[in-house]
Amino acid sequence: MSLTASQYARYARHTALPEVGVVGQARLLNARVLVIGAGGLGSPVALYLAAAGVGTIGIVDDDVVDVTNLQRQILHTTARVGQPKVESAQYALTQLNPEITVVPYHMRVTIDNVLALVESYDVVIDATDSFATRYLVNDACVMRQKPLVYGAIFRFEGQVSVFAPHMGGPCYRCLFPEPPPPELAPNCAQAGVFGVLPGVVGSVQATEAIKLILGIGESLMGHLWMYDALSMQVDRWQVARNHTCARCGDAPTLHGLVDMDALCATPPTAQIDAHSLARRLNRAPVFLLDVREPHEYDAGHLAGAVRIGVDDVANRFDELTTVDEIIVYCRSGMRSARATDILRQRGINAVSLTGGLLAWQREIDDTMVVV
Question: What's the whole-number mean pLDDT along residues 281-299?
Answer without folding.
Answer: 93
